[in-house]
Amino acid sequence: MTVNLLATVDLGSNSFRLLIGKINSDGTIVPLDQIKETVRLASGLDAKNNLTKESQLFALEVLTRFSERLSNFKKSQVRVVGTSTLRVANNSAEFITIANKALGFPIEVISGKEEARLIYIGAMHSLAYTTEKRLVIDIGGGSTEFIIGEGYEPQIMESVTMGCVSYTGRYFTDGQLTEANFNNAIYAARSKIQSMEHLFAEHDWRLAIGTSGTAKTLYDMCVENGLSTQISYDGMLQLKKKLIRAKSIKNIAIAGIKDDRRAVIAGGLSIMLAIFEELGIQEMTIADGSLREGVMYDLMGRKSDSDLREVTVVDLKKRYGLDIVQGERVANLAVYMQSQLIRPEKTNHENRKLLIWACELYEIGLTISHNDYHKHGAYILQNSDLAGFSKPEQTIIAELVKAHRGSVSKIFLKLRKMYRDKIKTTVVFALISFRLSVILNRGRKDFNFIEVLKVDNVTKSGFSLLMSKEWLTNNPLTLFSLNEEIAQWLPFGYTVKLVGVKDDN
């Protein structure tokens, strides 16, 4: 076993998860293997808060399987944590004694606040580093953690005994999805949140972040049903209506929900709606990192203030053998044109970063096939573990790569779905800049386009592209491609006028 590997096991109330990661020289951790098994330990508590024999046996079977994967690890490389259900079970100590033997590593039952601290560390290491205050929320199977922090430092940490498994079992009797059941669950959750609401009102957090299974499922459901591009309050209200129309958990058939989440989504949705209502949240983004990643970084004892997203992009370039110089050519020209199309005060620097990274990675799909390589590239970027990138950021980069060539009509259909028919001009101009840059750099030659290209007469519906008449004459294939591209945008109300101008000399 190499010394640069670490492993963590999260014994959650809904799932048991094993994560194995490799420590890079820059202090980041790359996931190598992840195993998840749905255990629903919280459902195994009887009326006296004891874990039943049946639930214990199933949990031990899972831990025995995990032990095989961990057989070559040293104790210093592994940390195992138990959460809400193991905190409240009266016979927890008895179970842990047996579980330690089955797994081969000691199990540490952590407090709610320690769980919150580790969740925050995991979430922050999966997002771009910032000192901006963030609120992180993790709805687990038996508890929900609330954390406010700056950078990698959590400041306020609270754990509340409400989770997707426990609330689904308690408020949705026999799996019945009714308005009354949802209201009861939401009111119960709101009453618990009210007791600590003042702690969060006193801190000026700027961004709400969800993590773990419930948040990720709600995000997928909102996006795949065209309700919003994030977890939104309005989107969740629509999901609630869809669930009520299903009448029963067994009848749920909604895009974005996996089989293992169907049985507990009602409780998770109720808790998240309550959080949004009590804390005045309208939208929430999500982070890939959570408890197990936080445990791993805590085990490693390192942290980095650099932008992890940049490290990830560099790694992708190396891994897929991309033409780095070509990616930079496309990125530089796209940003140059975008800077002329969008006024500085309207420029979103984070979005500009995403455009740059999409340009640098636009040929990643060539590793699969030249045919439809833009689609292959989008698939790779959408479905890879991209450390530092939030899910919405990952989606934006994937969609930009997919849209850098091909039919504009298909692109507009996607944009309308993503932005609910409220497509911003800045988005369109960024995309046009990207597509034009790819066309102009098709020759893969170093060339200073600033000398022959200028943007003028910018309006909300288009602009003039001034180019050297001599250059256009000497590059007839590029001229043909530019005219084809311009013609594609006209039916959608965007006019790009290509104007050949004489050189100054």
A few lines on this structure:
By secondary structure, the protein is of the alpha/beta class.
Number of domains: 3
> CATH topology of the largest domain, anyone?
Hypothetical protein af1432
Structure class: alpha/beta
Oligomer: single chain
User: Looking across the biggest beta sheet, what order are the strands in?
Assistant: 8-7-6-9-11-10
Rg, Å, rounded: 26 Å
Q: Give the overall pLDDT as a whole number.
A: 89
> Helical proportion?
40-55%
- The biggest beta sheet, please? 6 strands, mixed
Name of the CATH architecture of the largest domain? Orthogonal Bundle
Low-confidence runs of at least 5 consecutive residues: none
Q: How much of the residues is beta strand, in percent? A: 15-25%
CATH top-level class of the largest domain: Mainly Alpha
According to CATH, the homologous superfamily of the largest domain is Hypothetical protein af1432
Keyword list:
505 residues; alpha/beta; Nucleotidyltransferase, domain 5; six-stranded mixed β-sheet; 21 helices; 14 strands; elongated
Structure description:
This protein is α/β, with parallel strands linked by helices and 505 residues long. It has 3 domains: 5-110, Nucleotidyltransferase, domain 5 (2-Layer Sandwich), CATH 3.30.420.40; 113-290, 2-Layer Sandwich (Nucleotidyltransferase, domain 5), CATH 3.30.420; 308-501, Hypothetical protein af1432 (Orthogonal Bundle), CATH 1.10.3210. It contains 21 helices and 14 strands.
